[in-house]
Amino acid sequence: MSNNTQSTTTAPTSNPGFTPKRFKGIDYTQRPQSYWDDSSVLHATLRNVKGENRRRLIRDFHSLNQLDQVEPGLSKDTLTTPERQSLGRIHPSFLGGEYLPDYQAAETEIARIVLDSTLRDVISLRARRTKTGLLRYSIVDEYEGIFLFPKIPSRDPLTLGQIVDWIDQTRVEDSPDDGYGLGLTYTESNHKEGELADRLEYFTTVESELYPQLTEHYRKVSSEWVFQKFLDHEDGKTRARLITSLIEEGKATDEADATAILKEHGF
């Protein structure tokens, strides 16, 4: 891991052939009033806390109405090297996010991608207000990765739809362009290395205090991906055989359940 500032590169304004992904029941027009709005005590506490496990502990305190009992060291933006080393001795996953680059002036995290890896790796999506009032966006990780995405300067915060499109059009430099974007590319990479699709459904989590339905959107994306892998494996089978396979593989409890699953995915 590295704590150096990483390069984030922007590509042309749009990717040719890109088709936005949308699901019913999700408000893609939702837009936070400000990325620096402290009206939510939880958001104000979490805003630039790097460590994923520390963020989860803070949420636990909040759910118990005990945010006032959070120790100052737990909610620090950045830990010292000895503090990180101490956490790492508890479990490697406590290092997740702790080695993200420091924030620039007037910069804040607006969303993050968390991987269910040994180190619970984190990719941070950030916004920075410039002197001219424009918002500039960047993506950083803990390994000096370079991310390629369309230019998206704005004066107002992005809508949920815009941040989804940003994530889906982003590519990692020197990685195969699998067409999935950041919401699935790490999941797909693990699948190509031999991991079963069913075990990877929750490998990638996309979350944000500012966009409450962002996680729901990518849960649906991941569910679709798992189902498509199932269809690829069952290629050529009739609907009746698909229903049987769903039941035999434990994906459905009975015929009615299997039928509902197929209907949910457009079959």
Describe this protein with a few key phrases.
single chain; 267 residues; three-stranded mixed sheet; 8 helices; 13% strand; disordered N terminus
Word description of this protein:
The chain is built from eight helices and seven strands. It is of the alpha+beta class and 267 residues long. The protein has two domains: 9-233, no CATH class; 234-267, no CATH class. The strands form two sheets. It has a four-stranded antiparallel beta sheet with strand order 4-3-2-7. A three-stranded mixed beta sheet has the order 1-5-6. A hairpin with a 6-residue loop joins strand 2 (107-115) and strand 3 (122-129). Helix 7 (239-248) crosses helix 8. The protein is globular. The termini are far apart. The model is unreliable at 2-7 and 9-13 (pLDDT under 50).
For the CA atoms, what is the radius of gyration?
20 Å
Main sheet makeup: 4 strands, antiparallel
Number of domains: 2
What's the average pLDDT?
87
- The dominant shape is globular
- What is the tally of beta strands? 7
How many helices? The count is 8
User: What is the distance, rounded to the nearest whole angstrom, between the alpha carbons of the first and last residues?
Assistant: 44 Å
Strand order of the largest sheet: 4-3-2-7
Which bin fits the share of residues in helices?
25-40%
Q: What string, H for helix and E for strand, traces the elements in order?
A: EHHHEEEEHEHEHHH
Task: Give unreliable regions as ranges.
Answer: 2-7, 9-13
Structural class: alpha+beta
